[in-house]
Hints:
This protein is mostly helical.
Amino acid sequence: MGSEGPAKTWTAVTADLLVGPRGIVKAIHVWWPLSLCLTVYGIPAGPARWAMPLAAFGAAACWAEAAILCNDFADRREDAAARKSRWIGALPAWAAYGAVAGLALVGLALILAGGGGPVTGAVYLAAVALALAYSVRPLRMKTRGPWGLAAYSGSACLAYAVLPWAWVGAPAIALAAVCPAVFMDKWVNLHFHQVIDCEADAAAGTRTFAVAAGAGEARAALLWAAVLASVAMVGGVACSAVSAGAWGWAVAAGALLTVAGMAAHVTRARRRPERTALVEELPWHYLGLTFALFRVVPAVLMLRLALHDPAMRGAAALLLVLLAAEARHLVGYRYR
Length: 336
């Protein structure tokens, strides 16, 4: 290998983490709980108030990448059998788990440096521990049926919902709004991927919930989970609209237009000979609401915060960049 080989490899890895579809854009879910807590409680005082939402997103992104990479390395043999290429699978165990630990520690450092406090740090560490329990033996909750779905969803709920709530110090009503929506949305997301990967997981001996239940029952359960998630997300939209005051009409209108647009898109997509797995397996109301609540609503709330406080402009700009990056990835989505 020439001298430029390793540099290109690590350049590609860095690019994947920063701008790839499995990179930090995965942490976009933290923006709705964060923006709602800031809307309800207000922006914490301090000389670096502008950095607080950026640090919260950074910590959530570190959790997300640590969880993804840990699962990739734990599944490296199964992924190889399914012809999935994951760069971390080529590393020795000490390097792979060192990268996971390094990312997790960077997230913790961002929390401490950003004034998150010990409670926020404890929530973050609990999210990391639950993510490890999902992927790594001896627990490896991924292979324990519905407990795997619960472990991953609970970990994401801690990182995306409880962490910003604890950091901001928002009232309990905000936590009651964000936790069910985040938990159920991530449940549906993982459940969907288990259904799609059911045959490959069964062949590899990975006993996920979908494998244990069977493809038919797993699909039926997925539809019920999507209904529950949709109900929770309607509550999240309603709470956001009420909390936004005079901007409530913009929150509600943005969500309604998004759901209506998704319904029209799904109707058209299902008439095509080749349909993506998203529109094949998931109902229009879930797809519309997850896009509305976790993309459109935080964009409106962050815009409102930025117009009222210049310290929030950097965070609002970052969110818009992330939304554009995710939209670009979704346009080319082909996971069937």
